[in-house]
Fold these 4 entries.
Entry 1:
Amino acid sequence: MSMKTLKVRTNQRAEMLDITDLVKEYLEESGTQDGQMLVYVTHTTCGVTINENADPDVCTDLLMALDKLVPWEQGFRHGEGNSAAHLKASLMGSSCTVPVQDGKLQLGIWQGIYLCEFDGPRNRNVLLDVR
Ligand code: ZN
C-alpha cells in the first residue's frame, strides 16, 4: 500500500485547509519508516503548499496578498471565468514532497501542509504517495 486519495471538502471560494494531520494519519497507516511523502492535487484551481501553522493570520495574509496579485476580474479570456484561480493554483504548485524519517514527516516545528482552495467550495482529491 503506497497510494491513497483523500477526499477533502472545501467551504469557501478561497481557503487554506490544514491537511497535515490527514497526511500523518496516512503515513502511520502505511507503516513507512524512511522515504518520501508526495502530496498531490489532481485539480487546476487549487494547489498545495507548506507554510506556518502556528499563527492563522499567515494564511489570511497569504490569501489577501494573492488576491492583490491576481484580482478575480481583469479581462481574462478563459470562458469559465475563473482564470484567477488557475493562476493562483500555478503559483502555489500542485504538489509538495516531505521527507520521511523514523516513521515521521520531517516538517519543521512551524510547518503545516495546506490545500489551497481558489475556486471553492468544492470536493477535492488529494493524492498521497509514500515510498
Ligand atoms: Zn477554468
Entry 2:
Amino acid sequence: MTSHLTIAIDGPVASGKSTVGRIVAQELGCRFLDTGWMYRAVAHAGLSAKLDLEDQDKMTRLAERLTIKLVESKRGERLLVNGIDVTDQLHDSRVEQGVVPVAAIRGVRRILVDQQRSIATDGPIVMVGRDIGTMVIPDATIKFYLTASPETRARRRYEERKNTPDSPSYDDVLERLVHRDKIDSQRAESHPADDAVIIDTDGLDASETARRIIDLIEDA
Ligand code: CDP
C-alpha cells in the first residue's frame, strides 16, 4: 500500500490519456509515466534484434535483459533502452503494429508490471496505460478511465501523426485503432476498474479533461 498520491489514468487507443496525464502531472508536481512507452520499447528492441515478436519465450527473455529508463532532458521526457535513446522511434508504424503481439505476451507483461509497481512506490506519480487501475496499482489514490468514440480517437491520432515521416491516412488510423481496441478488450485487466471515474472526452479537449480530473482529485 502506498501512502503518497498515485493517480491511475487508463483508456483505449488515443483516448488522450498521455496528453491529459502529462498536464495533470505538471499541475500537481508529480512524476509522469506512460506505460505504453515501455511496451513499445520492448517491441522496438525485438524489431532491432530481428526477433519474431510473437515468440513468447524469446520476447520474454529479451524483456528480462532490457534496462528501460525514463529521463528528463531539454527535449522533454526521453526513453532509454540499455542506454540508447529510442523515443523518436516509439511511434513508427512498425512499432505501432509490433507492440500488439508483444503486449499480449504474459511474460513481458509480468516483467513490465513489476517494474511499473516499483516505480510507483518511489513517490507521487501519474501513471497512464490500460491496466494501471486494475493491475499495476489497484490501491491507487484515485483512478480515471477516459473514453471517446473510435472516430474522435482516430482523428486525434491522425492529427498527432500527420506531419511525421510515415504518417498514415485517417482511414488507416481508424482501421488499426479498431483492431487494437478489439485485442485490448480481450484482456481482462484492460477494462475500467470498478472504482474508476469514467470520463467521456468526446466533447472535451485535453486541457478541459485535465481540469476535470484535477477538480475531482481536489474534491476527493
Ligand atoms: O497511445 P496508444 O493508446 O495508441 O498506445 P499506448 O498507450 O502507447 O500503448 C501501446 C500498446 O501497449 C497498446 O497496444 C496497448 O495495448 C499496450 N499497453 C498495455 O498493454 N498495457 C499498458 N499498461 C500500456 C499499453
Entry 3:
Amino acid sequence: MRSRRALLYVPGDEMHKIQKAIGLGVDSICLDIEDGVALNHKEQARGTIAEALGALDFGRSERLVRINPVGSGMEAEDLRIAINAHPDGIVIPKVREAGQVQWISDRVGELERATGRPDGDVILIALIETARAIVNLGEIVRASPRLQALIFGAEDLAGDIGAVRTRAGWEIFYARSAVVTHAAAYGLQAIDMVFLDFKDAEGLRAEAIQAAQMGYTGKQVIHPAQVGPTQEAFTPGAEEIAYATQVVEAAVRHQQDGRGAFALDGKMIDAPVVKIAEWVLQRARAAGKI
Ligand code: COA
Ligand code: MG
C-alpha cells in the first residue's frame, strides 16, 4: 500500500490552489467537492477537477477526489465526473453505515468497466466523522475490498455528538482511538484529524506526533505549510530506525539461542516490543528511508 503521511485538501473549484498543490511533494492530494466548496460552486468544482486531472502532472502525489455524501443527491454525478477523469481514488465523506461504502464501490465498478479501467483499480477511503460510523465501524471496515484507509474527522464528529472541540481533544478521544483500532484490525491505514490552526506549526507537530504514537499512519492537512511537518512526524527518524534495527537483529539472534525475552540497554525485549520495532522499519521503508 502506498504511503499517505499527509493528505492535502484542495477546494475543487480553485485551479490556482490545485496548481500549487502538485508542486509540494505531498503524498496524497484530495480535490474536494464537499465541504470546502460552496453549494453554488459544486458544478464549477466538478469541471475544474476534470480539467486538472486531465491536464496536470501530479508527480508522485496520489490523486483523490472527495465527493459529496451518499444521500446528498450530488454523489452520483460527482462520482461519474470523477471516475471519467481517472483519479487514483475516491474519498467518501460522512459515512454512516457499510451499505453506503458498498453502494459507492459497486457504482465505481460500473464506471470502471464503462471507462475501460481494470477491475478494482480505483481505491476508496472512508471518512469516519459521524456517531453512526463510530458505532458501525466493525462493518464499515469490511464493506469493500477497494477500501484502503479510514480518515478520522473530528470537527464533524463533534458537531454530530454535541461536543465542544478543545485542544486537548478528550471529547473525541474515544472515536479517535476506535478509528485507528478498527483500521489496524483489518489492515487499513488510519489518517488523523485536521489541525485547523494552520499558522501554529508547533501545535501541528505535537498533534501529528501524538497521532503517529497512537498508530495513525498519516494526517489530513489543509494548507501547504502543514505538509512538511506532518510528513516528517510520520517518518521515523534516524535514531528510531537504528534502534528498531538493533531490536529486530538482537531478537533474531536470541531466538536462535532459544530465548524469547532478553535485555537490551537495560530494557526487556520480547515479542510485542519486536513487533513495534518492525512497524517502525515498515514505516521507514514506506517513506523511502531504508
Ligand atoms: N492547497 C493548495 N494551495 C493552498 C492551499 C491548499 N489547501 N491553501 C492555501 N494555498 C495557497 C494559497 O492559494 C496561497 O497561494 P499564493 O501565495 O500563490 O496566493 C498560499 O498557499 C498561501 O495561502 P494563505 O494566504 O496562507 O492562505 P489562504 O488565506 O489563501 O487560505 C484556507 C486559507 C484555509 C482557505 C486554505 O488554506 C484552504 O483553502 N484550505 C483547504 C480548505 C479545504 O479544502 N477544506 C475542506 C477540507 S477540511
Ligand atoms: Mg467533514
Entry 4:
Amino acid sequence: MANNENLFKQIISHAKEYGFIFPSSEIYDGLAAVYDYAQYGVELKNNIKNYWWKSMVQFNENIVGIDSAIFMHPTIWKASGHVDAFNDPLIDNKDSKKRYRADVLIEDYLKKIEDKIDKEVEKAAKKFSPFDEQLFRSTNPRVVEYAKKIETITQRFSQMLNDEDLVGLKALIEELEITCPISGSRNWTDVRQFNLMFATQIGSVADGADTVYLRPETAQGIFVNFLNVYKTGRMKIPFGIAQIGKAFRNEIVARQFIFRMREFEQMEMQFFVRPGEELKCFKYWKEERMKWHLSLGIAPEHYRFHDHEKLAHYANAATDIEFDFPFGFKELEGIHSRTDYDLSQHEKFSGKKLRYFDHETNENYIPYVVETSIGVDRMFLAVLSNAFNSEILEDGSERVVLRLPAKLAPIKAAILPLVKKDGLPEIAREIMDVLKQDLMCQYDDKDAIGRRYRRQDAIGTPFCITIDHQTKEDHCVTIRERDSMQQYRVSIDTLKGTLINKF
Ligand code: GAP
C-alpha cells in the first residue's frame, strides 16, 4: 500500500462522502488537524474500542479499566517530564510566516531522495526482464549514491535529535538548501523547542486561576490512580489498568488526515510487575498485541515491529507496531517497558508512597510497568485503508466496497424489501424489529435493489437481507454477502441465528 497518494485521497473523500469522517467546523472552513466522526464513523470507532476493551479487560481477569478525568493536577505533568521535555523543534520561515517542524523538513527532504530511488527502480523494472531489484539497488551508481546520501544525513540528523542540537538542525536545513514550500525562500529563523501541551486556566481569575493542561496521554491518569485501584480492587501483581480516552497535542505538522490530530483518542494499558520481570512481560505483550491485530483478519504483511535501538531514559525496552498505511509504514501502537520511572516520579513529586506489598516475597517495592498504547484514530485509519477497495465487476461496472472485518462493520445487516408495496415493507419491518435487538441494522427501501446493495457495500455492511414476493409464500429471505456477492435463501425463523453465528 506504501506511498499511494491517490489511494489516500480516495479514502479521505470516501470517508466524507459516506458519513464516516467530516472535517471539524466545516461550515467555518474547518479547523486544522481536528475531525468529527460521522454516523458510520462513530459506529466503527465504538466497535474498535469495544473490541480492544473486551480483549484487554473482559478476557484478562487481572486487568481492570478506569476512566480518569482529562484535567489533572498540573504537577503531574512536571513529574512525568511533559512540562520540560514534551517538545518539538520548530522553525519559522520569515517570508511566508509559516511554522514547520525542523525534523519534518529534513525528513521530507530525505523522502524526496527515496522517491528518486523508487523512480529509478521502477524505470529499470520496466526496461529489464527478468529484473533483480536487490542487485540493481546495490550496483546502479546513481541509486547507490542516493542511498549513501540518505544514510549520511540520517546518521547526522538522528545524532542532532538525540543531543537536542537545535543549532545543528538549523545548520543542516541551510546546508541541504531546504526551502519553504510556500515562499520558496531559505530565510529561516533559529530552531527552538515548542511544548506540545495545550494549557488553559481553571477557576475564576479573581480567585487566582491555575494553569492546567489538557492531558497529552491517558497513561498518567492510570499511574496516579495506581494505589487506589490496587487497594480497592485487591489487585495482586502482576495486574493491569486499562483506559480509553481523549488526549490532546498541539501538533505542528498535521497533514495526514486522522493519523496525526490535535485531539485524538488513545487505548492504553499499564501492566504492573515485579522488578526484574518486566522484560519477560514486555515480550509477552509484544506478542499478544500483534495477535490482537492479526485476529481482525488483516494480512500479516501489513504489520511489522520496529524495535527501538535508542531508548528513552526511562525505558529498558521499546517497540512500535507499524502499519502499512497508504503513505507507508508508520507507528500504530507503542509497547514500552517503562521501568519504575513514572511511579517513582509521582512518589517524589506527591510525597505519597506508591508501593506494592508483595505477600509472596514479603517485600515492599515500586512495581515496574509495561505499557501498551494504541491510537484509536490510527487504528480506525488502518482498518479503513485496508478495507477500501475499488473493483471492476464482470459486467464492467465499478464497485467500491469496504471489506471491513465483519465484527467492526458499522452496520451488520441491511434490511431491504424488494419493492415498496405488496406487503413486503411490512414483513421487512417485522424482521428489522427482531434483528435490531441484537445487531446494528439499517432499513432501506429507496431506489432499485442494485443501487441499495452498492450503498451498503460502500459503508461495509457484510450482509444484505432481501425480502421479495416469494418470501410471502416460503417464509424465506435472501442473504447477500458483501465480499463474495453470493446469495442464498434462509428461513426467517433461522435468520437471526444464522447472522449471529457469522459474527
Ligand atoms: N503513553 C505513551 C504514549 O502516549 P505515544 O507514542 O506518544 O506514547 C501512543 O502515543 C499512540 O497514540 C501512538 O502509537 C499513536 O497511535 C497515538 N497517537 C499519538 N499522537 C497522535 C496524534 N497526534 N494523533 C493521533 N494519534 C496519535
